[in-house]
Each structure stands twice: as structure tokens, then as C-alpha cells.
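Deliverable D4.2, example record:
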Amino acid sequence: MNRDAHLSSLRASGEGLLAAAAAADLAWPVPSCPGWDVERLVGHVGRVHRWTAGWVAHGHGNTPMDRPPAGPAVLDWARDGLSQIEVALASVDEATVVPTWTGERPGRFWPLRMAIETALHRWDAEAAVALGTLSGAAPAPLDAELAVEGIDELFTVLVPYRASDAITGDGETLHFHATDADGEWVLTLRPDGAPAVEHAHAKSDVAAKGPASDLLLFLCNRVPTDRLQALGDTALLDRWTAAVKL
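Output generated by the structure prediction step:
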């Protein structure tokens, strides 16, 4: 996906999140974000969008910002944050290198990061509505192409930066395979540092496959292992869930 596609995804996910929150009681719990309610989720997204707009504009994350307002006003506050990040990202040149909290990255980093972050939290908001209304309706899946990009980012950026020693081992391997998009990954656990990752189809200690959305949601601790087809040493998948909190 290019920048414009990421921006379209960001807009759709942001509007979807706000629609779900507007249909909810802001005090409802968000099952995929333990300890959070809908109001906190909306406020978090509004802050992330403003914080990122500051990064894009100034090259650092120290831009002062207000705290989210309490109650229903948080919805309009988050909608304004969505507008701010859209304007900021529209100026990003994918061909350049830009500063980020992980060091210098290609210009596509920020549009992709915000598209993924917002899509995941849209899913969280819809999960909260499903729980709060007892409707049994499942949140809409993430776009498969975006989910593949999200898994790539998770393995190559987020885990090395935020959880480099969270899951270690002695050469155990985990194979993840998207069934609805072009995406396969083999992780090799190492005694020190983040797992090594390669795009490959290879026999591994455990193999897990499913739609790209379910793979990313599992890897981000949103859905359980039984959403995937898993073969082999499934205890390795349980280790991932217990160790990697992003």
C-alpha cells in the first residue's frame, strides 16, 4: 500500500472507531485492552494522532498537548485529532528519510504506523460494543493487505524496539502463514534479543495459519490461538501471548 492508501485506511478506521464509540456507553470495558473503557480508548487514539502530528511537523515527540476531555466531549476531541494527523501525513514524502521514535525510517513509516494503530483500535472499539450490547456481532476484520504490512512492522520494528528480550529461546521456530494474502514469516527464537525473522515457507516447531487479520490480531493479543489453525508445539504460541505485550 502507498501513502494515499494508508491515509484512506486511516480515515475509514478513525471514522469507524468514532462511530462505534458513539454507539457505546463510554464506561463500557474494552475487552482487548484490559483495564480500559471506551472513553480511555478514544482519548488514547486522540492523543496518539496529535503526538504523531507533532513528530511529523517537528521531528520529535515533545509537542505539548492537552489531556483528553472527560465524557462525550472526547469524541469531538478525537475527531479533531484525526483531522490533524491526516493533514500532517498528507505532506509526508515516502521517498525521504524521516525521524521517528525508532530512529530514522523511510517516509512511509508514519502513514503505515497510523493506519495500523487506528485499524487495531477501531477493532477494539467494535469489540467493546459487541460485549456491551451482548450482540455477538464480531468486529470487522482488518484489511488483509494492511494486516500483512502490520505483521511485517511488528516483527521488524515494534518487537525489536519495544520487546527485544520479551520472548527468547534456543533456536525454536514459529511459522505464520496468511491464507488470504501473500504473507509468510518464520521466527527463530534466540537467547538474546528479538527473534530473527525471514519471509519463508519452512518446516517449523509450530505452524499457525489463518486470515492475515486474525494473525495480526493474535500477535497483538486481541484474539486467542483457537482463531488460527495451529500444528506442532502450540506451547510456543502461548509463550508469545504471555511474553509480548505491545
